[in-house]
Amino acid sequence: MLFDYFKPKSFETVNGRSVYRYLGIDFFKKHLLLTDLILFRARGKPQFDLNAGGRQKELERLEWQTRRDESIHLAFMGVVAAIALAKGDDLSAGQWIGIFLINLYANVYPIFLQRHNRIRLLKLLAPLTCAMRRGS
Hints:
Layout: E1 13-14, E2 17-18, H1 19-22, H2 25-32, H3 35-43, H4 55-86, H5 93-135
Antiparallel strand pairs: 1-2
Helix pairs in contact: 4-5
């Protein structure tokens, strides 16, 4: 099933930590990824709704957003790969390396970031979901 793709896999955690930490995702988040922060500040909106009543709803929204954003980056990665393969004979080794590096920065690491964040969000949502089931 398509949605099984988005579920965290066993290989994505090592000793209870996201494997993406070992792949440099913290550096990517800290130094290279500013677009969300800039967009939220430009809109004058808070990034999160932290009131207690809406916390679960906000975490669910953020988890869905990771799925959406990952899908967008997967699609763009596919488009870049298709274009590169179509133009493959005309590209030099340097251009192939450039395409690879741009794709790594623009698509692969953002996908890693979405998967890393989803693991963290699902850990936060698990107790809330269990509490709601018991309360029903």
